[in-house]
Amino acid sequence: MSALCGACASTLLTTTTVMHRATVVSWSERQRWNRRRGGAISANGGVAVTAADDQRLKKGIAEFYDESSGIWENIWGEHMHHGFYDPGAVVQVSDHRSAQIRMIEQALLFASVPEDPVKKPRSIVDVGCGIGGSSRYLSTKYGAECYGITLSPVQADRGQALAAAQGLANKVSFQVADALNQPFPDGKFDLVWSMESGEHMPDKLKFVSELARVAAPGATIIIVTWCHRDLSPSEESLRPEEKRILDKICDAFYLPAWCSTADYIKLLESLSLEDIKAEDWSENVAPFWPAVINVLYGVYVSTLLTTTVTHRATLVTWSERQRWHRRRGGAISAKVGAAVTAADDQRLKKGIAEFYDESSGIWENIWGEHMHHGFYDPGAIVQISDHRSAQIRMIEQALLFASVPEDPVKKPKSIVDVGCGIGGSSRYLSTKYGAECYGITLSPVQAERGQALSAAQGLANKVSIQVADALNQPFPDGKFDLVWSMESGEHMPDKLKFVSELARVAAPGATIIIVTWCHRDLSPSEESLRPEEKRILDKICDAFYLPAWCSTEDYIKLLESLSLEDIKAADWSENVAPFWPAVIKSALTWNGLTSLLQSGWKTIKGALAMPLMIEGLKKDVIKVSIITCRKPG
After folding, report:
1. Contact predicate 593/608, CB 8 Å
2. 417 - beta bridge partners?
3. Could you tell me which Gene3D superfamilies the record lists for this protein (predicted)?
4. Is 308-630 a domain of CATH 3.40.50.150?
5. What burial class does residue 228 get, using C-beta atoms within 10 Å of its C-beta: 0-12 exposed, 13-18 middle, 19+ buried?
6. pLDDT band per the 50, 70, 90 thresholds, residue 142
7. How much is the pTM?
8. What string of H, E and C letters represents the secondary structure of 462-501?
């Protein structure tokens, strides 16, 4: 479009097909509603947006990208958008970053942006710039000044740093600003660029109006965005199954209701823009997501293993702390890994509760009601369908190892499940022994779900799940014949207090079973784990809200200090190692991926850390141990 033309040219490129929420009206539907009632075209993209809703959405978008931009940069590179491929092409994993450059070039080609030295754009705005990949690319290509805006302070800072590193600090600038209220004068830019940011805008008319306002006469506007498919004249709305898909994506990525390509065109026409054209690039971008998924785990694990973390960079294991006290003649510390203040303790518990409140739904979808490892023959070829039955084997193997009696007279009649999740073990043990079982968890969501599942299975009078602290259990001394902790000990900041509470609530003669994640035992000559081992554990701790780890040997010494009897332990690492690959395969199914997207960032972060468990088990730094004992009777 020549700079001499009086109106702006608008180019619209769409990338996807379906829509937002089963309970939300799409922009197309809302238009029809207004037309039937004689109303004006709605400026809002699918929902009536209050000022409070608008602020919540913007805050959510900013926080989402503040948290996630580092990971997306590691996976996608500096261009945080789709790549462009030939439809049906066989895509190599290594190709997705170059495909993102093709996406930019194809958009410029489609819009006929001039490269002639006289007519090329000299001033560009990148609306929803991410960390500024497009801004820097366009500035370099055209020798233009480029201004990027984003809601995320982290993205703006990173964009500036990358611009400086690439020698573009005097040509490219980034700032935190609202795309619906841009901080630029009218008619400033020769090229107005929006690469996959329109889907975040709650008010599509305001969005395109601002793009047009800041465009200079004759400027080109390019919008690449996610849309739902156009509705046929006979359709009032998308189909329910289409809405359900987009509902989950909207929840994950902080998107309001979407509109269609036809809706965008009508909005642009209402602003008297010229040369409006659009094209569906869905087939061209479709190969991008499989390529990203293929690299997701490899790239992320590589990053986790090589980058510096801030959360526990000075992690000290329980074994090291014991040695420190012995060298100085001090008592054995009850704290594991670091001195835990009351404030630290509360923050940890709050983090654990929120993590499981957010993630329990997806773990149930992928793992089933038993939220722990499965038990396999070492080296067995594992089918994805086998991991739930393997979790039952885990329970049975633990009972067998501990010699829990099944004799009607001696079998346990009262059981506590410490860190019960949604109560899978509680219900299984109650059914097996006909016992009363009490489950405790820090997560209100887990407790509520556990109660509901117990009622659905006819166990409401035998199984009770409640919110309680494992370090301060709400039960009297000596209440339980079987004290069960299946993979909850790793969350405990004070291991001595943890095992002391298990012993306190155990009846005389009761069996205590602890299955937990440990670090490897240290040799007599070792003062600590190796730095690379600590790095793996640090990052798992970050993802799963774990304090510092201890070893199996440490647990045994703690139990001995309480005068418990028949203490024995076994390393089950080889038996559980096949579980994580099976879970990752489950997570990469459609059900797993959509559940991940719906669940929220804490869960995604935890899921991305799953390969570290594989890494830690392979390197023998992580041990999954069973430790059992008996309270003197």
Report:
1. no
2. 439, 484
3. Vaccinia Virus protein VP39
4. yes
5. buried
6. very high
7. 0.56
8. CEEEEECCCCCCCCCCCCEEEEEEECCHHHCCCHHHHHHH
